[in-house]
């Protein structure tokens, strides 16, 4: 045997030794991978029912939240109506307060009473005078029309 063949034989022997040495950890690794696969499968089998229950619970919560949202929407609509009513009541209260102030000041002040009476009397007298003047003007217009008609009749009877 030559030196090259002996070296090849030694290299082949070393390769076989390497394969044998590496075979043991690879076999152990295969057992570890198989155990991990079994654990994962077992965990999946155990958690599937739990996940189904969790999904059902979440759907129930979502339904309840939807109902709560609908209820809150209704409450918000009623609160808006109540705000409107409160605003109107506030306006009415302010108007009544102003009116009571005006009535109190008008009723308590004799000067205001006398002034309002004199204003009313002046207004009534002015209206009366105006009505009298208008009646006089109407009467004058009527007399003028009658006079013109009579003149036309006289002119028409004289020209015939």
Fold blueprint:
Blueprint: H1 3-108, H2 110-158
Structural notes for this entry:
By secondary structure, the chain is an all-alpha fold. The chain has two domains: 1-108; 111-160. 97% of the residues lie in helices and 0% in strands. It has two helices and no strands. The chain has helices at residues 3-108, 110-158. The radius of gyration is 59 Å and the shape is rod-shaped. The termini are far apart. The relative contact order is 0.02. The model has no long low-confidence stretch (mean pLDDT 87). This is DUF948 domain-containing protein. Residues 131-160 are annotated as: Disordered. Residues 131-142 have a biased composition (Basic and acidic residues).
Q: What is the total number of structural domains?
A: 2
Overall mean confidence score, pLDDT: 87
SS elements, strand count: 0
The count of helical stretches stands at 2
Structural class: mainly alpha
Order of helices and strands: HH
Question: What is the terminal separation in angstroms?
Answer: 180 Å
Largest sheet: none
C-alpha-based Rg, rounded? 59 Å
Shape: rod-shaped
Share of residues in helices: over 70%
Low-confidence stretches: none
Strand residues, percent: under 5%
